[in-house]
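Morning F.,

Quick status update on the modeling queue. The single chain you submitted on Monday has been processed. Sequence for confirmation:
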Amino acid sequence: MPRADVVGLRIPRPDGAVIAAELIGPAGHPLVLLVAGGESSMDWWRPEFCDLLVDRGLRVARYDQRGLGETTLGPMGTRHDGLAVAVGDALAVLDAAGAGEAHWLGFSAGGWVCQLAALDHPDRVRALTLVSTTPTMFGGDADLPGPVARLREAWANPPPDPDWNDADAVIEHHVEIDRDYAGDEFDEAHDRGIWTDTVRRSPGMHRDEDGTVEFEDAPRWRERLSEIRLPTTVVHGTTDPMFPIGNGEALARDIPGARLVAIPGGGHELPPSAWPFVVDAVAGL
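Structure tokens below.
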């Protein structure tokens, strides 16, 4: 049965995109803003995961990233993208929720968004939980281990595109890609649930991507991380193939007072087996 305390939002952006978001939990409770990785819908944050946070006395905001779920890309010729745009979208969700600040929970590229928010908009960030991410998107830092060989091989030999008009084929395509990002075990049922809901709610997915996009990326920020003075927990899988755990260790060193929580056998993913690590991190801050 759907929760009674769920509020849907539609948030227009300056370039014509409209962000679809959802608030879960009682109004007035401290807000947790969920910022997923690149090309993710709000379905990436499963309802059961959100309920665990709500049960700890929190309110949750989740949203579809551009071109997925019910979030639009905007009219041809006006579309914007990039990390700076992603930060703006996240802040717009916070504004629409009526919250001056929130606990920012970011996964992968969403962790970059959270780091930049903490640096450039510290008044909007109460605390940080950074999951499976790194202190830079630019690569090349000697102390940051890169993707493992099996993942690099998968990138070099990508699967053929499915028939984008065949929902089942699209779901299977994404599930097979995600398999390469798993840790010691791949929770296929969990991952298929994400993509089933995403594809069901994404009528324009892969069909509305043509046209010029203006990218607005942020400059390198790692050297500024010592400026962050917020309660921070870094959560990282010990077998993450995308960002091996040395990335999480470095991030925890770079942010003063940050705590590192390792997920044994965890990959570049957030299956139910990893939820207790993240929920306890958020509730503890």
